[in-house]
């Protein structure tokens, strides 16, 4: 019987597979103008530093950061849990004649040797992780000492509001799961839509559901052995193809020298809330 962690991973992967075909059409996810694209290239050139560097893009999605980092001259490996996201990113790279190592993989269990990369980047990822502490530990593991971590994040919803919405919809979710089971043979598309509701039950219980505030993420990174943490607002409307109603920012830091990188295991004393996170699959 699969353990709970496997079930959570499966729900999250299926959700992002389902989103992949339209992901680039959404404001905040895709590129909509040459001006926007150039603004991101300028930002990444400044944050990433002089090329070429060995870069890992974790949770790469359809390749938003991946392709631009490769275009800037970096040697990029990109991983994502969703095969459909990876497929779309790979096709875009082929069309742009960019050489990128794409892999389907888990951002908290990276199939790379220690100290492989000079730079690890992630965009809109940490809020999706059931165990963000384990994620940061992995990212530091694959970074070289002194290597840089760049997280581009935002705060767009209140965690408690997401959780309340989930609790109120549990009865509906039970019904839709039951209906989906009946419809599987007759209408696979509708069944998939109904089953996807399970993801929102998981999302409501994620430690950073709704996105972390900049202060909360900075404190979390420092507690998990990231050094020299700096937060930079990213509110230029050009970056987001229009004014953003949500706070958006980049949090950067470095991997410390080896003697300072002590226990970063998931059961370390540092945590996001001080509470255990129990995932309820009853809905």
Question: What's the gist of this structure?
Answer:
The chain has 283 residues and is an alpha/beta fold.
Explain the overall architecture.
The protein is of the alpha/beta class and 283 residues long. It folds into 2 domains: 200 residues, Vaccinia Virus protein VP39 (Rossmann fold), CATH 3.40.50.150; 49 residues. It has a 7-stranded mixed beta sheet, sandwiched between helices. β4, α5 and β5 form a beta-alpha-beta unit. α7 packs antiparallel against α8. It is globular. It starts with a helix and ends in a 29-residue tail after the last strand.
SSE topology:
Layout: H1 4-19, H2 34-48, E1 54-58, H3 64-71, E2 75-80, H4 83-95, E3 101-104, E4 117-123, H5 132-142, E5 143-154, H6 159-168, H7 170-183, H8 188-195, H9 197-203, H10 214-223, E6 227-233, E7 248-254
Parallel strand pairs: 1-2, 1-4, 2-3, 4-5
Antiparallel strand pairs: 5-7, 6-7
Helix pairs in contact: 7-8
The arrangement of helices and strands along the chain is HHEHEHEEHEHHHHHEE
**Rg from C-alpha positions?**
19 Å
Question: How helical, in percent, are the residues?
Answer: 25-40%
CATH superfamily of the largest domain: Vaccinia Virus protein VP39
Q: What is the domain tally?
A: 2
Which tags fit this structure?
disordered C terminus, 10 helices, 283 residues, Rossmann fold, alpha/beta
């Amino acid at each position: 019987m699969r353990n709970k962690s496997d079930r959570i991973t499966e729900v999250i992967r299926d959700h992002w597979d389902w989103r992949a075909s339209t992901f680039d059409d959404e404001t905040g996810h895709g590129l909509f103008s040459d001006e926007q694209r150039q603004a991101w290239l300028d930002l990444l050139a400044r944050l990433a530093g002089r090329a070429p560097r060995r870069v890992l893009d974790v949770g790469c999605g359809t390749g938003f950061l991946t392709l631009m980092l490769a275009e800037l001259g970096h040697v990029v490996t990109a991983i994502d849990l969703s095969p459909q996201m990876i497929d779309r990113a790979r096709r875009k790279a082929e069309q742009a004649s960019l050489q990128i190592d794409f892999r389907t993989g888990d951002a908290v269990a990276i199939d790379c040797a220690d100290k492989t990369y000079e730079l690890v980047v992630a965009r809109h990822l940490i809020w999706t992780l059931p165990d963000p502490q384990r994620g940061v530990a992995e990212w530091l593991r694959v970074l070289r000492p002194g290597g840089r971590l760049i997280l581009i994040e935002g705060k767009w919803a209140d965690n408690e509001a997401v959780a309340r919405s989930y609790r109120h919809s549990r009865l509906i979710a039970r019904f839709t799961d039951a209906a989906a089971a009946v419809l599987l043979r007759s209408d696979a598309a509708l069944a998939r839509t109904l089953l996807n509701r399970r993801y929102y039950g998981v999302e409501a219980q994620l430690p950073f559901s709704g996105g972390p505030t900049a202060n909360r993420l900075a404190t979390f990174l420092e507690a998990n052995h990231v050094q020299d943490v700096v937060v930079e607002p990213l509110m230029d409307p050009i970056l987001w193809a229009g004014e953003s109603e949500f706070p958006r920012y980049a949090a950067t830091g470095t991997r410390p020298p080896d003697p300072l990188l002590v226990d970063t295991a998931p059961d370390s004393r540092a945590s996001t809330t001080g509470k255990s996170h129990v995932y309820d699959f009853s809905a």
